[in-house]
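call fold(seq) -> tokens
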Amino acid sequence: MIKKTNYVLVVDAKKKPLTPCKPSVAKKLLKGGKAAVYRRFPFTIILKKRCSAVLGETPTRCCAKKECIPNKQKLELKIDPGSQTTGLTLVLNDALIWCGELNHRGSLIKKKLESRRQSRRLRRSRLRYRKPRFLNRKRPEGWLAPSLEHRVLTTMTWVKRLMNFASISSIAMELVRFDPQKLENPEISGIEYQQGELLGYEVREYLLEKWGRKCTYCSKENVPLQLEHIVPKARNGSNRLSNLCLACEKCNQKKGTKSIEEFLAKKPSWLKSILVQAKKPLRDAAAVNATRWKLFNTLKETGKPVSTGTGGQTKFNRCRFGLEKTHFYDAACVGQIDKLEILANQPLIITCKGHGGRQKAGLNKYGYPIRYNPLKPIKGWQSGDLAVDQEGNFGRVNPRSKSNSFNFTVFGQKAKSIHVNKLRRVHQKDGYTYG
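ret:
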């Protein structure tokens, strides 16, 4: 597939968002001195004066007539919320023009909170006995765990950023990704996505996520997978999700009507892991289900019209257009769409890193302070700032408090020490890294 870069986001001289333009148009505007780089990630330019061609009026000499994109067009932001990665796309008149993938850090937040809790508990218990106090705390209505709240907040951060840099007219999101309870009983009426041909897509998408998109018995990947009953229907096996898995054609034919105990008699450890996985709930699906309504209600507060689509409908659209399984393609296929033209397929990879710890001191394994952390920023720099050295290399800066030489890491290379005067900052730390 030919790689196509994202369209460039544009704001006018008064910092009002306009319709994104082609990279070739942005290059002409920058080269002609009619625009300047406003932001690196996402790449945004700001017009130095009123540009009638970009605004959709009578074209001028600032750019070619055929490449100008009118400002008053339907630009929709589409979101595919995920537990670990969220897909973000901008669709202009049924054409995908910008895409990105936002990688969350919910699991890391949970791990750090557990570590802090253990250190506190150990440190306090060493001082004196404290009577348990677990009945005097009340959580507010709609409370979410910090690892789940993080997914909503980071998604909304990027929704607001894109709204500041692009003239978005509406928002679409995948609201119901999985609903295991209702899938257990397909005879429930009144639920639209459970009727007709989309039901099969809901079941298969759930199983693909649960079994890691590979054969349950031989772990083969990138092969056609078939629905497999762990307890065969010939032996009174049910159609419950806990009795379904995925298998390649060879394993499915070889197992036939055998029970899984007979089929994997020579692989007891493999048999045990499959039986445990079959009864195990889908943690990622539970995280998405817990945050979907909070994200939906928060999106409505933006004032833009918000539409929704189901997980089965997304996969149905993606298969209909022959697109591969990626988070940004899933986002582009959300909702009811008739056609989709791919004008950008190189997503901006956004990884949440946070703004660093706020601890004033580092702790040892017993939870006691052993050193004091330096105050931020250090000589005007923070860990995570992106800069360019004198040779034109682009990388990440890690400042030192006791030296004027900072660690400078070029992506894909080893870190090296460079004097601060030889670095020029191009993007200030904002809690994310980009690729």
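Residues 54-70, 191-198 have pLDDT under 50 and may be disordered.
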